[in-house]
Amino acid sequence: MKKILFIIILFSKTLFAYECPPLQSISKELTNNYNVIFWGKVDSVSSTNAKGKSNAYFTIKELYKGSVLQHVKVIFDENSDCMMSFEKNDEWLMYCTFQRFDELSVNICSHSRKLFKDPEDDFYQLEALRTFEEEKLFLKLIFKIHPFAKNNELNNKQIDFKPHNDQPSGINKLVLLLVSFGAMLIVYFVTRKK
């Protein structure tokens, strides 16, 4: 009875508030929609900022896809009908995308799911067609467990994506100067004849 009441409340909230497209059971192809997939525990949740976004801080137990540190921040919407609900010590299978290079985000329509103490309360299982443990096993089979990134590795990757102001070498500068001078001479003589 408790499970049925919980599902009715969830679906009525979804019908009147925010509607996601039908969620298919996670497959190898659907995992391509996500940059980072992990099983983790919520350490803390920040308050909502002016844009209606909050941060959930996770300690990752198993990393299935992506390259991130063991302790990550995930940005989520908390100020609308499509908000997610994270609480300290909750365990989640998270399906995240990069909002920027080092900022993970998640939304309510992703495949992310919470581990419930009572399996009968797991309304995600209706859509996922797998228990939480079965989904973890599925992810381990297709991805294995990845090692966590080290801080200096991420910093090096981030430097690669930042704008560069590379200067040419001495010889290249000389060649550019000579080519520019030659082009100016050609323009000068062409315009002088006219």
Topology summary:
Layout: H1 2-16, E1 36-45, E2 53-65, E3 71-77, E4 91-100, E5 103-105, E6 113-114, H2 124-128, H3 132-143, H4 151-161, H5 170-193
Parallel strand pairs: 3-5
Antiparallel strand pairs: 1-2, 1-4, 2-3, 4-5, 4-6
Task: Explain the overall architecture.
With 194 residues, the protein is an alpha+beta fold. It contains five helices and six strands; from the N terminus they run αββββββαααα. The protein has helices at 2-16, 124-128, 132-143, 151-161, 170-193, and strands at residues 36-45, 53-65, 71-77, 91-100, 103-105, 113-114. A five-stranded mixed β-barrel has the order 1-2-3-5-4. A hairpin with a 7-residue loop joins β1 (36-45) and β2. The longest helix is centred in the C-terminal third of the chain and has 24 residues, at 170-193. Mean pLDDT is 80; it is low at 5-16.
Short description:
With 194 residues, the protein is α+β, with helices and mostly antiparallel strands. Helix content is 35%, strand content 23%. It has a five-stranded mixed beta barrel with strand order 1-2-3-5-4.
Question: Which labels suit this protein?
Answer:
194 residues, alpha+beta, OB fold (Dihydrolipoamide Acetyltransferase, E2P), 2 domains, 5-stranded mixed β-barrel, 6 strands, 35% helix, elongated
